[in-house]
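DATA SHEET
Item: assembly model
Revision: 1
Owner: S.N.
Input lines:
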Amino acid sequence: MWEKAFLDELAREQSEWEGQLDSKRVEEGERTGERKLRTDTGFEVKRVYSPLDLASAGYDFSRDTGWPGEYPFVRGIEPQMYRDEPWLMMQYSGFASASETNKRFKYMLSQGATSYSIALDLPTHKALDSDDPLAEGEVGKTGVPIDSLSTLEEIFDGIPLDAVKMFTFVNMSGGPIFLSMFLALAEKRGVDPADFVLFITNESLIDMATRGTQFTSPAGHFRLSADVVEYCARNHPNFSPLQISGYHPREAGCNAVQELAFPLSVSITYIEEMMRRGLSIDDFAGSFHWFLSASMDLFEEVAKFRAFRKVWASITRDRFGAQNPKSMHADIMIYSGGSHLTREQPQINIARTAIQALAGALGGIQYMNLSSYDEAFQTPTEESATIAVRIQQILANETGITKTVDPLGGSYYVETLTRQIEDGVREYLEKIEKMGGAVKAIESGFFQAEIAERAYEYNREIESGARTKVGVNAFRNDEPVKVTPLRADPDAEQTTIDAVRKLRDERDSRATERALSALEETLRNEGENCVPAVKAAVMAYATVGEIGMVIRKVYGDYSEEAIRFGV
Amino acid sequence: MSRVCRVLVAKCGLDGHDRGAKLVARVLAEAGVEVIYTGKFLTVDQVVETALQEDVDGIGLSLLSGSHMTLVPRVLERLTARDAASIPVFVGGTIMPDDEKALLELGVDRVFPSGSSLSEITSYVSELGKAA
């Protein structure tokens, strides 16, 4: 790309320039510790980057940067990117009860949100009804409790299914249940599912290794997830039935390379399964989405998103023969990394979140959710959730960064980092392949061990001061923290419990029983897609817990073994 | 007579986020504490019965789901019912300052909200063994 004579001259100039540096000052300045001269993931950061760095990496503009909307999509999946319109601005919410969620949804719409993410409570994630003994104290805490179709009806009361561009339904382990609820709701309202967009996370493998909402065996969860992917590929191509997460591994402690490699290896498992079921890559890969973190090392994050697009494009096209460009597009949704926010001096988290958002925007992502500043304390208040949306609006409207595509493309530093991350990810993917793929890697505990190791290193760096954390190990302010507590309705849990009990009394329980029996039979048949049977149960107002019970009956319960250290 | 301190580190309730609990278990073990790390999804009864079976000097609970004000008091009640109220309980997680105060008043020995220093936790736990 550059002529040898030019590079030789540059090398000479750089050498001369470095020779003039005050070596004593440099030594003192850099004596802050090796760790501080590395990116978050650990790549060495040089004093300055130049064409020499790109040349030595064999950089080629067309192959490594290229043009937006063209393979391998490093600069962006679309030619116009944010010049047409910014990324979709989202806010994850839902809590206490269906009626509270309905109110919050309407409020967010009035504040300009163009999409809605629905957060669930833990009993719902674990396929337990709100009146299950294990649900006590947990109902409505991390999100909305959904016990049956009637709860979803209440959440959407007065809200058309096409009120926003899309809904994101964040549930990893109970895919068929919640897909069915949306289809059932649409059917009851006479709405064609082709007229609204549903994103359902539905990915249980990464979840098992990191977030932990599993309620049955890995084989059971994989079947549930794969059935949803297949069903949507064949019937609802406008839905996104799989959001594969690098966010949860990253938040659990892994680095940026692992954040990309883990979900990519999982995606290969799903691709192979769908192909085994008779679909071709272009039938489904375009509907996959990715859920990644936006972390604090600004330039590494930007490079990370760019590298990710390149690797995914090459997997779909070169490994699996995709021909439709949509299959090659890495559609990325980000959530700001909550683990980087602090309990100390919580208002400064607003600055951190803005930087994470900037990383995502400069990285060309498609959807953005940001944490609220009180993340370390509670689920967000209206005030803090609104600030999070405003950050996005400021970024999109006041900074000018949306006017050109991939503004950091061509930066010697960012292009070098992009390549380093790409190489790291490919190497890691090969390692996982050699182990037998993602499922084996998770069953053997490899993902979990890698993540825990990195989490441990990170913590040691903070405790030793090798890594600075403002407000925690530097610039402390030991005043007591003032955070406006979220006023949750203390009766919400009981109201929800009463509602599910009333539902069981009032529905035609014999019809429900019949549907649940039919579901059990379907689940025992590996070759049959379980979504229709789950939908029939949902339409008969079977509860989430009742459906969960049938699944556990067929695939078993989930439990963990104790580990003894030093005993 | 003092012996090596032994503690239970557990997550009770439905929360699956175990980065903190795993870290605490590991760092304590490195400091010479015997740790039984039971992982996720334990019920209140399972926590107490395991603690008694293992004859622990302390019980560490990690909760990040907001259910601590229901589950922790239950653990304390159950310990009392089993004549084991003298086993100190220490709690970590996403806990509001008001709840921290309330938990201490209910009988929790120490609260370590998210971001607490692991060296502080280690010093605290190491002392538990000495009281035995």
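QC remark: The first helix of chain B runs from residue 19 to 30.
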